[in-house]
Amino acid sequence: MMEKYVNNNLEADWQKKLGEASLENLIDIVGNEEDYDPAFVAMAKEKIKVHKDYDEEIVASKIEIVKSLHRERIDRENIKFPAWLQLFLAGLVLGILFMLYSVFSKLINAEPVGWYELSYSIISCLFTGYLFWCLFETKCNAIHLTNWYLVLSILVNLWSFLLVPGMEGRALLGVIISILWLLYFNHSKSIGHIYPPTERKFQKRDYIIIGVAFFICLILPIILFSSH
Fold first, then answer.
1. What DSSP designation does 112 have?
2. Of residues 224, 204, 228, 203, the one with CA closest to residue 120
3. Is the pLDDT of residue 90 over 80?
4. Which of 15, 20, 44, 167 could link 29 by a cystine bridge, Cβ 3.0 to 4.6 Å?
């Protein structure tokens, strides 16, 4: 008797919830049926059929779109990052930690930190942190950002190779490593699966972030070097 009472109360609650739902909400429930109780989904389907804006063809098309997006979301949640991508992400984190350690150790030891060194460290950390987040969350702009990040790395290392004495070996190694990462991100099948080429696109804020990073990390040091 108690179980029947609970079920009746649950159904009444569902009926109230579905009665207040819009057609789009009902379609969303049916399209994401794996997330709901089968009985609740069945009730949602019945509500759709008697909705005043019901059109069988249009509703069926919208449900398929929602189901497709649901499958993509599930696939993304189950994605396992390959070892090379994990290594790259770890490298980004280590790079941020190294830059922060470099600046804070000088501040703690009361050593002078120039405005350029401070601005370079801040912008580098922000750009690298943003890139890490985009890659980790499989954002649509992740690969484009990675490409620009690696291009910037190549140009900065080339500048160091040509104009900074004693940096030739380290700079050349940086160029080679960045080129190898570029090839990996643009030709790896596993990367293509995680970040489908058809879904890749820039966000508006990316242009500002990349522009600032290029100015602070590449253009400004060239200007400062040329003025001495």
1. -
2. 224
3. yes
4. 44
Q: Say whether 39 sits in a helix, a strand or coil.
A: helix
Using CB atoms within 10 Å of the CB of residue 37, give its burial: 0 to 12 exposed, 13 to 18 middle, 19+ buried.
exposed
Q: How confident is the model at residue 84 (pLDDT cuts 50, 70, 90)?
A: very high
CB atoms within 10 A of CB 36: 15
As given in the structure block, the two tokens for residue 118 are: 């401070």
pTM score above 0.85: no
44 close to 13: Cβ distance less than 8 angstroms:
no
Considering only CA atoms, which of 70, 69, 94, 92 is closest in space to residue 81?
92
Query: Packing angle between helix 168-187 and helix 83-108, nearest 10 degrees?
Result: 140
Q: Of 25-29, 115-119, 208-212, where does the model show the most confidence?
A: 208-212
d(CA 172, CA 11): 69
What long-range pairs does 93-98 form, CB within 8 A, spacing at least 24? 93/132, 95/124, 95/128, 96/125, 96/128, 96/129, 96/132
CA distance 22 to 42: 16
How many helices (H) and strands (E) the chain has is answered by 11, 0
Per-residue burial over 121-133, b = 16 or more CB atoms within 10 Å of its CB, e = otherwise? bebbbebbebbbe
Report the candidate in 159, 160, 153, 147 with the shortest Cα–Cα distance to residue 175. 153
- List the structure tokens of 158: 């080339």
